[in-house]
Structures are given as structure tokens and as C-alpha cells.
Amino acid sequence: QVQLVESGGGLVQAGGSLRLSCAASGRAFSTSPMGWYRQAPGKEREFVATISSSGSTKYYADSVKGRFTISRDNAKNTVYLQMSSLKPEDTAVYYCKATVNGNSNWGQGTQVTVSS
After folding, report:
1. Do residues 40 and 91 touch, judged by C-beta distance below 8 A?
2. Is 103 helix (H, G, I), strand (E, B) or coil?
3. Within 13 A of 63's CA, how many CA atoms are on the CB side?
4. pLDDT tens digit string along 64-75?
């Protein structure tokens, strides 16, 4: 099992930047693919980005490609989501997910609000 704690959310103006962090506990982090997802009010949770355990492979949703960057530091058991050129439609609760032995482990989420 992996416990996940997200941080770094907040209120930002359109065009601004934020960096989210997700700190993980447990030895499984370095061997686990990690992902970021988000859920806006009244909408289903959606995929944002994912990164392989080594960090060599990354995938992004089309809506964030070129604006968001996912990365990880296995020495610090942390995965990051650097978000730039933020838009009001990026407003959501952002969650990180660890896939451990095929099981999904979720954090509690961090709120990102982008004002126009």
C-alpha cells in the first residue's frame, strides 16, 4: 500500500502557474506508475497525466499537453505536476494516484482554482 498526500493547490489568475506535489509513503513508490487526475464540480474525474516508475515514459491528456509537465523524484518519494498557462477550465480538485500491484491508491486531493 501507498499513502499519498497532495499539496500545492490554490487560487491563481488565468495564465499563471502552479506546481502540485504528491508525497508518498511506502516502499512501493519507486516501482509504481503514478498519475494525476482532476475532478471539476458536477463532472466525472478525468485523466490528466501519467508517468512510469522510472520516469522515462509520460502521457498527457490532450487538454493539458504542452502546458503541464509531470515528473517524479524517487529519492524523495514525490511526484509533481507543473502547470503553466492555466485556464479557468483547469479549475478542479487534483488527485494523484499510485498503481500498486494493479490496485489504485488515491490521495485526498488539492483544490486548484483559476480565475479569469
Report:
1. yes
2. strand
3. 12
4. 999 999 999 999
